[in-house]
């Protein structure tokens, strides 16, 4: 494994026409592939046969198969079910984009509360943020989905419960990021706007917020990626998204490694696509300065 860093440092010399982005993520993909191959080729060592009976039930057959000549992997068995797993992508993206959009609005409102001069608003916003940052997201999702009918009598749908939970949770995180971005804007601009008689609402909407959002774009992208991966939690309340679809395929075919690996690849591709889009947008914003 010590030879890998040397190989990756020489990639720009071997492929001089690759862009810096392509070199970076190409090296990451190549390193991931080599690590996986190394793990399957060297890292799997079957235990002696006499030690199998006391192992957990799912592990003993796996080691027995490994001793007979390798793992029993057959990705061809899930090929007919690939469209079913891919059908979960729109559901995952719908959860993510809806939660990011609504969370950004709610986070911006909370950030304004935190910098407000009204005494109780900063306290209220800080208490809200501490609660949602201090409790697990899965617990919040369970409370919203299962407790809402009990408390209000309204039978909330899984989609509504997921979007509402992710919005409330992401708003708490985004509020701190947006607050830092607002306070990073030069105070002279707000003072100049107030001296010219610009209303506070227009000043924040047209002058302060655009600059703050540009400064905190990387942090917002990280929050979006986190929401994209956390969207798999809605499978616990019956939503058939990518992970839940892979679990259904595994339960029907009595195999789990192959469909779960497929789900992992799909999540990885979505995250890389989002990262690339954010990098492109950030370069264009810098170019416009």
Describe this entry's structure for a reader.
The chain is flat. The chain is built from 14 helices and no strands. Helix 9 (158-184) crosses helix 11 (200-215) and helix 13 packs antiparallel against helix 14. The longest helix has 32 residues, at 257-288. It has 289 residues and is an all-alpha fold. Helices cover 75% and strands 0% of the residues.
Describe the structure concisely.
This protein has helices spanning 3-9, 11-14, 20-43, 59-67, 82-86, 88-114, 120-134, 137-152, 158-184, 187-195, 200-215, 217-230, 242-253, 257-288.
SSE topology sketch:
Blueprint: H1 3-9, H2 11-14, H3 20-43, H4 59-67, H5 82-86, H6 88-114, H7 120-134, H8 137-152, H9 158-184, H10 187-195, H11 200-215, H12 217-230, H13 242-253, H14 257-288
Question: Which key features would you list for this structure?
Answer:
flat; about 290 residues
Secondary-structure content class: mainly alpha
- Order of SSEs: HHHHHHHHHHHHHH
Residue fraction in strands: under 5%
Terminus-to-terminus distance: 43 Å
Instruction: Give the oligomeric state.
Output: single chain
By DSSP (H or I, 4+ residues per run), the number of helices equals 14
Biggest sheet statistics: none
Shape: flat
Mean pLDDT: 78
**Rounded to an integer, what's the Rg over CA atoms?**
25 Å
């Amino acid at each position: 494994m010590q030879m890998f860093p040397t190989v990756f440092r020489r990639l720009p010399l071997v492929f001089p026409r690759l862009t810096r982005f392509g070199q970076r993520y190409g090296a990451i993909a190549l390193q991931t592939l080599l690590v996986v191959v190394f793990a399957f080729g060297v890292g799997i060592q079957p235990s002696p046969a006499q030690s199998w009976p006391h192992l957990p039930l799912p592990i003993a057959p796996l080691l027995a198969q490994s001793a007979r000549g390798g793992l029993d992997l057959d990705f061809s068995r899930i090929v007919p079910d690939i469209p079913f797993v891919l059908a979960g992508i729109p559901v995952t993206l719908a959860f993510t984009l809806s939660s990011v959009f609504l969370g950004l609005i709610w986070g911006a409102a909370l950030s304004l509360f935190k910098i407000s001069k009204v005494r109780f608003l900063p306290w209220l916003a800080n208490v809200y943020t501490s609660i949602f940052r201090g409790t697990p997201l899965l617990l919040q999702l369970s409370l919203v989905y299962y407790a809402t009918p009990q408390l209000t009598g309204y039978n909330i749908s899984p989609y509504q419960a997921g979007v509402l939970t992710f919005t409330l949770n992401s708003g708490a995180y985004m509020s701190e990021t947006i607050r830092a971005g607002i306070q990073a804007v030069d105070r002279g601009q707000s003072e100049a706007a107030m001296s010219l008689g610009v209303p506070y609402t227009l000043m924040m909407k047209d002058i302060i917020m655009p600059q703050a959002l540009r400064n905190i774009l990387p942090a917002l992208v990280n929050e979006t990626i986190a929401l994209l991966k956390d969207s798999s939690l809605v499978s616990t309340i019956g939503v058939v998204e990518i992970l839940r679809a892979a679990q259904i395929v595994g339960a029907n075919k009595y195999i789990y490694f192959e469909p779960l690996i497929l789900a992992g690849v799909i999540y990885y591709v979505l995250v890389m696509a989002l990262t690339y889009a954010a990098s492109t947008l950030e370069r264009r914003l810098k170019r416009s300065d």
